[in-house]
């Protein structure tokens, strides 16, 4: 289990920008969406490529609320590791950072897309698969 993660410094500004643009709630909601978006891409990130930890800090309860165990289980399944593996927090941090970067590109290339439209399209895409 992890207690805190910190995004990269570059993603600190992205969190603020996306939070203001998408109007989906607080910064932890945007980071939670970023985590889910990154994991949905079904790629395994390499621990050797972890970014700096000079950005926004979240504790596990703030980031994932009462569902922390489910998010940890997602990482454990994706990486075939135990839920108590010492690297769980690092994987969470990497997927938050990766997701923030992916979302930033998504909304820079689709300037008129709202947060609700994006979430709706991702749900529709998931249901159709």
Keywords for this structure?
single chain; 129 residues; mainly alpha; two-stranded antiparallel ribbon; 2 strands; 5% strand; globular
Overall description:
The chain has 129 residues and is mainly alpha-helical. It has helices at residues 9-22, 27-40, 60-64, 68-79, 88-109, 115-128; strands at residues 4-6, 57-59. It has a two-stranded antiparallel ribbon with strand order 1-2. The longest helix has 22 residues, at 88-109. The protein is globular, with a radius of gyration of 14 Å. The mean pLDDT is 92.
Summarize the structure.
The chain has 129 residues and is mostly helical.
Helix content: 55-70%
Number of extended strands? 2
Q: Multimeric state of these chains?
A: single chain
- Classify the secondary structure makeup into a structural class: mainly alpha
What is the N-to-C order of secondary-structure elements (H for helix, E for strand)?
A: EHHEHHHH
Biggest sheet strand order reads: 1-2
Shape: globular
Please report the number of helical segments. Answer: 6
Note the beta-strand portion.
under 5%
Radius of gyration: 14 Å
Largest sheet: 2 strands, antiparallel
Q: For the residues shown, what is the average pLDDT?
A: 92
Q: Could you give the distance between the termini?
A: 31 Å
User: What low-confidence regions span 5 or more consecutive residues with pLDDT below 50?
Assistant: none
